[in-house]
Specification:
Layout (H helix, E strand, L loop, with lengths): L4 H24 L8 E7 L1 H4 L9 H10 L4 E4 L2 E2 L15 E4 L5 H13 L6 E4 L4 H5 L4 H18 L4 E6 L10 H21 L6 E5 L17 H18 L2
Parallel strand pairs: 1-2, 1-4, 1-5, 5-6, 6-7
Antiparallel strand pairs: 3-4
């Protein structure tokens, strides 16, 4: 066969296009999503933590996200002073929105100011809603109203926010009086109602069950998590986060 310049050129073009096609295909199969998801952990002492006395779930949640290649930024006006190991050469993000002893009313009163001081959250992890209200014997109806208003504010700030709200883990069995058990059970059911009523076309409100399988062995004291407890809660959060993060 006679090889001409035209024939050589044609084959060079063909192989060049084939090479470009393969390269494009490789790029298409590579995850190029670099969006950073802003996550606010909202609540009281179970969010705040107090090493070494008791643990927050924040580090274990963050650890799972980093190990699974999610780009996240924990936000909040509070900062954890504890020492934590690096994960994949990345330092723990200590920002959060938890204050020890705060009731739902305390959180509601301060929330707009706190939100104005940080980036807009894409996701909010709403920890143990109404837990301190129960411990402080505050009116149940007020706690429910406050929780609903908290979600309203979050959705006003970001109409696309995802709120993951706990059906909270119980306190240690020996402090769970009949009154606390009743309050606890009512709140667990109320969370499901809140999820149904507050979810919109753009803003999902999602319940996460933290009480099934939770035992006294996961507590460092009456109500706070030990290391295993923090891992238990973090795993439940991660199961939801891995489905909703962008």
């Amino acid at each position: 066969m006679k090889i001409t310049k035209t024939w050589i050129f044609t084959w060079l073009v063909f192989f060049g296009l084939l090479s470009c096609s393969d390269e494009s295909s490789d790029q298409a199969n590579t995850n190029t999503n670099t969006q950073v998801n802003t996550i606010m952990t909202l609540g009281a002492s179970r969010v705040e933590g107090n090493r070494p006395q008791y643990e927050s779930f924040r580090f274990e949640t963050w650890k799972q996200l980093i190990e699974n290649d999610w780009s996240v930024d924990f936000i909040g006006t509070q900062r954890d002073p504890g020492a934590y190991p690096e994960i994949e050469s990345i330092a723990f993000d200590p920002d959060h929105q938890g204050r020890s002893g705060w009731s739902s009313g305390d959180i509601l009163e301060q929330l707009e100011s706190d939100l104005s001081a940080v980036d807009i959250p894409d996701v909010v992890l709403f920890s143990s809603p109404g837990g301190n209200d129960a411990l402080q014997n505050l009116p149940y109806d007020e706690a429910v109203s406050n929780i609903n208003e908290i979600i309203d504010i979050l959705q006003e700030v970001n109409p696309y926010v995802i709120v993951i709200i706990e059906q909270m883990a119980p306190g240690r069995s020996d402090i769970m009086t009949q009154e606390l058990i009743y309050y606890f059970n009512e709140l667990q059911n109320e969370v499901l109602t809140i999820v149904e009523q507050k979810s919109t076309e753009t803003s999902r409100v999602i319940a996460v069950d933290m009480y099934t399988g939770f035992t006294d062995a996961l507590l460092a004291d009456d109500v706070h998590y030990n290391t295993k407890g923090a891992m238990f809660i973090a795993q439940r959060y991660y199961e939801v986060l891995s489905e909703v993060l962008q």
